[in-house]
Automatic annotation (TrEMBL):
Its cofactor is Mg(2+). Catalyzes the phosphorylation of D-fructose 6-phosphate to fructose 1,6-bisphosphate by ATP, the first committing step of glycolysis. The gene is pfkA. Allosterically activated by ADP and other diphosphonucleosides, and allosterically inhibited by phosphoenolpyruvate. The keyword ATP-binding applies. This is ATP-dependent 6-phosphofructokinase. It is found in: Cytoplasm. The lineage of its organism: Bacteria, Bacillati, Bacillota, Tissierellia, Sedimentibacter. ADP binds at R21, A22, V23, V24, R25, R154, G185, A186, E187, R211, K213, K214, H215. Homotetramer. One of its GO terms (biological process) is canonical glycolysis. Its main location: cytoplasm. One of its GO terms (molecular function) is ATP binding.
Length: 319
């Protein structure tokens, strides 16, 4: 193993830079040249890359985003683009590639692996929607960002005696909403994993008001509905002033949490270690305090288990 590539793909996530830094420095420490591929698989198709040095990753461990850039490449998914990418892998002399991202990234990595390019995947997405791993890079930072907003919105919600619907990201996964709801003391979470009944939501709001609650916070996962529609319906049914906020991209940026930096650093080093030991076509995950690896295809075929216990607990604790 003489030369490896590293790329970040899909939605960026805090902690990706820590992982890039670890791949580069752990690689160089082990006498491996590291090439940074810009803008994910698009960079591989276009041959857009840069040689990484120790100093190229200085001062990035604490920064959100990804210094390599990220994209969702359609070209890479098509035959012609994919073949161009393979040619570039050869041209650059890459013996393996570390791919950092979510399920789309891992699908791309799996295709490369099938075509004979050794790959290791590091889970990086704020959505926490990968079934095989307990957590993904960026999830906890995004959660903290959401909680900061929830607390601010709660202040004004209390002052005005309103209901506030807060829409968070997560695509088809409700984890950001669920854990922000539990950690933020929301009255209710609405997530794609559970069918909701608007009358039950309204009853919960009215019960809370009857026992003197000044505000109601509803955290809505983007995959479960539209904040504007739901808040209008709640106001109509309850007669309580209701506002909504869509937190949007603030959730994807910002200083990565200690956990995301640690996980990024450890996973980056492990990815290099695996490639140098001729172990490839694996993805890294975390369970408890342990970082593990598993077959990429197997990981992608797993179905995410819904944390029903936390969902029920959120409801109980907000009575
Ligand atoms: O996958 C991360 C994520 O932020 C999702 O939560 C969201 O639905 C999506 O990306 C937004 O994608 P884009 O950056 O393409 O608008």
């Amino acid at each position: 193993m003489k030369k490896i590539g590293v790329l970040t793909s899909g939605g960026d996530a805090p902690g990706m830079n820590a992982a890039i830094r670890a791949v580069v420095r752990y690689g160089i420490f082990n006498n491996i040249n590291v090439v940074g591929i810009k803008n994910g698989f698009r960079g591989l198709v276009e041959g857009d890359s840069m040689e990484m040095s120790l100093s190229s990753v200085a001062d990035i461990i604490h920064r959100g985003g990804t210094v390599l850039g990220s994209a969702r490449s359609k070209d890479f998914q098509e035959k012609e683009g994919f073949e161009r990418a393979l040619k570039n892998v050869k041209y650059l002399g890459l013996d393996g590639i570390v791919t950092i991202g979510g399920d789309g990234t891992f699908k791309g990595a799996m295709e490369l692996a099938k075509a004979g390019v050794p790959t290791i995947g590091i889970p990086g997405t704020i959505d926490n929607d990968l079934a095989y791993t307990q957590y993904t890079l960026g999830f906890f930072t995004a959660l903290t960002t959401v909680l900061e907003s929830v607390e601010k919105i709660r202040d004004t919600s209390s002052s005005h005696g309103r209901t506030n619907v807060i829409q968070v990201m997560g695509r088809n996964c409700g984890d950001i909403a669920l854990y922000a709801g539990l950690a933020g003391g929301a009255e209710m979470v609405i997530i794609p994993e559970v069918d909701y009944n608007i009358d039950e939501v309204c009853d919960k709001i009215m019960q809370g008001r009857a026992r003197g609650k000044k505000h109601s916070i509803i955290i809505l996962a983007e995959g479960a509905g539209d904040a504007k529609d739901i808040s209008e319906l709640i106001e109509k049914k309850t007669g309580v002033g209701t506002r909504y906020s869509v937190l949007g991209y603030t959730q994807r940026g910002g200083t990565p949490s200690a956990f995301d930096r640690l996980m990024g650093s450890q996973m980056g080093a492990m990815a290099v270690e695996l490639l140098t030991s001729s172990v490839s076509n694996r993805v890294l995950g975390i369970k408890g305090n342990e970082i593990f690896h598993m077959d990429i295809e197997e990981a992608l075929s797993m179905e995410k288990k819904f944390d029903e216990k936390s969902y029920e607990l959120t409801k109980i604790l907000s009575i």
